[in-house]
Amino acid sequence: MNSESSLPRATGTADVSVRPARPDDAADIARIQLVTWRTAYRAALPAAVLDEWDADAATASWRSAITSPPTPGHGVVVAVERHTVVGFAAFGPAELGPDEEADPAGPTAEVGTLLVEPRWGRRGHGSRLLAAVSDLVRTGGAARMQVWLLDGDRVSAGFYESAGWAPDGWARTLDTGADPLRELRWHALLDDAPTDHAGTTA
C-alpha cells in the first residue's frame, strides 16, 4: 500500500508533489514535527515534550514507521516543494472507541498526524497530503476516515471543515503528566470527501 505505484501523482505545478516517505526523509519529518509543534502548539503541549525533544529518537521512530509499518494499512507520505520535504502525514487503521461498533460500510482509517512546516503553509500542501491519504486508504478498502484534533485548535478544525469533514461527537482526554489534553474526533465518508490534489487551503 505504501508504494510509489499506488500513490496518485499530485497535480499543480511541477515543483510540488506528494510521495511515499523514504527512510532518508525521517530526519526531515522529525524536524518538521518539532518546528510545527513549537510554533503552533507550544501553549497546548506540555513544556517537557518540546524542551526535552530527542531528535535522534524521533528520527529513529519515524524511520521505523516508514520501513517497518505495524500493518499493511499504515503509511507515511511527504509533501515536497522544489526537492524539499515541507510536510508529512501518517495514517493507519482506526481503533474503535469504547462500546463503538464497526461501520458496516467498511473499515475506518485514521490520520495520525498531518503537519506542514509553518514557513511552507498556505501553498496547498496540507490539502494535497490529505487527498493523497484519502486515495490510498480508499484503495485499501476504507469507507471512512477520522482524525483527533485538540479541542480549541481552530486552524486545524477550519482546515478539515473546508475539506468536508465534521465532528462526529466523540471526545477523549489524554493524560500527559501535566495538564490533560482534550481532543475531539472529526470524520469524513470517503465517498463524500473531495480529492483535490491542487488544493490551496493549507
From TrEMBL:
InterPro entries of this UniProt entry?
A: Acyl_CoA_acyltransferase, Bact_Acetyltransf, GNAT_dom
Record key words, sorted? Acyltransferase, Transferase
Taking every annotated instance into account, which residue ranges of this chain make up the domain N-acetyltransferase?
Answer: 16-196
Keyword field contains rRNA processing: no
Q: Which GO terms describe its molecular function?
A: acyltransferase activity
Pfam families for the chain:
Acetyltransf_1 (PF00583)
- Return the EC number: 2.3.-.-
Q: Where is this region: Disordered?
A: 1-20
Name assigned to this protein: GNAT family N-acetyltransferase
